Amino acid sequence: MSTAMPEPVSASPPASGGPPLRGRRTARAGDALVTAVAALELLPLQGYLDTESVLVCTPAVLVLLLRRRFPVTALLVTLPSMATGYLWLAPMIAMFTVASCTVRRRIVVGAGSALFGASLWAGITVDASSMTWGDHLVAVQVALMFSIGPAGVGILARTRSELRARLAELSASQAYGRRLEAERAVAQERTRMAREMHDTVSYHLGIIAAQSGALSSTAPDDTVREDAEIMRRHSASAMAELRDIVGVLRHTAGGRADAGDPARLANLRTLVKEARLDAVLHLDLDLPDGRTCVPLVERTAYRIVQEALTNVRKHAPGAHVVVTVGPSAQGDSLVVEVRNEPPSTQRQPGPALGAPTNGYGLIGLEERIALVEGALRAGPTPDGGFAVRAELPLVGSAYPSTELTGTR
To answer: Any residues with CB less than 8 A from the CB of 296 and at least 6 apart, and which?
Structure first.
């Protein structure tokens, strides 16, 4: 048994305006807002700043726009403004950025020490001659607050971001573990189904094959021997297909190749003949140039005819059946149609004796046809019969194909 493998899905880059672009825009807006807030500190100092202070404070404010890309450089540029005593907010913001963006502890400690020195210089040089020891102690405390405070908040923000990333990674790992557990449960269930199918269905099929073989060799009537041989052949084929299904369920490669699969268009005549119905087959395997029928489409077409004939035997015994298989008028699809007349008046319509009717036949056909991206229509006809029509797409010669001989 062969299964269709899904095509790999290629990853595409995010479209313009996606989350990464919005994140960059938000970061730029935040940097502009922080720069504007830092510049407000200079407004009360208008008229008191000399030329040297302006040359120091202006770059200290503008460098905040680049603090995310160059955090250490931004801090170094703002330190002279801290030493002058005119600008305090910009160096603190730069220190926060260094602590939140830098993982290396030495860099954070060095940056904090530099900011502490600049803050202490600004506090001591205001009026060093008149300062007491208490004033010096206050200056040290203020310098520690201006340096350790932003550094601590930055380290806290970085730790929180790392914790969020670890939690996301843990959640993804747990989801992956749950998915593996679900796949393991599915594999165990598939193995159990394979075991049950092999132990139960193969037992009954083996009995049918043995009994029909014995009847075929001992029956005095030719018709009975032919029917018994058909039963034996079908039971043997069913056992072979069962082994293929069990192999697929167990993820083994013991299935037969497509060349040995009986579910092929070339075997439709044998299928219709062995159905023992009043059926006529119109089979056209002459496909247009460049069009081929892949094994999966052939198998689907075969199963459509098989299921439709089974339904006729169950629900319309004695009805005349017309089976038509061939390319569409446009040549882009394979049309499979099974149409039956109303049941024969000699027998009442209804399920055949002992034939199970679970209603899953058409559902299974819909699922098969969906796998090949085809279309199915099934329903009663105006004359009281029933029709099943499916259109299965044909593909170009680039796909693996099956050699078909033209017969009608």
So the answer is: 2, 4, 371, 372
pTM: 0.48
Task: Copy the structure tokens of residue 391.
Answer: 């259109």
Query: 339, 321 in Cβ contact below 8 A?
Result: yes
Within 8 A by CB and 6+ apart from 324, the residues are: 282, 335, 336, 337, 338, 339
For 84, the token pair is 């002058």
Tally the residues of the chain: 408
Q: CA angle, 43 as apex, 41 and 45 as ends, to 5°?
A: 90
CA–CA gap between residue 87 and residue 42 (Å, rounded): 7
Q: What is the pLDDT of residues 45-81, one digit of tens each?
A: 666 666 777 777 778 888 888 888 888 888 888 888 7
Instruction: Work out the widest C-alpha separation in the chain, in whole angstroms.
Output: 134
**Average pLDDT in the chain:** 76
pLDDT tens figures, 227-284: 888 887 777 777 777 777 777 776 654 444 444 567 788 888 888 887 777 888 888 8
Tokens for 339, please give them: 């149409």
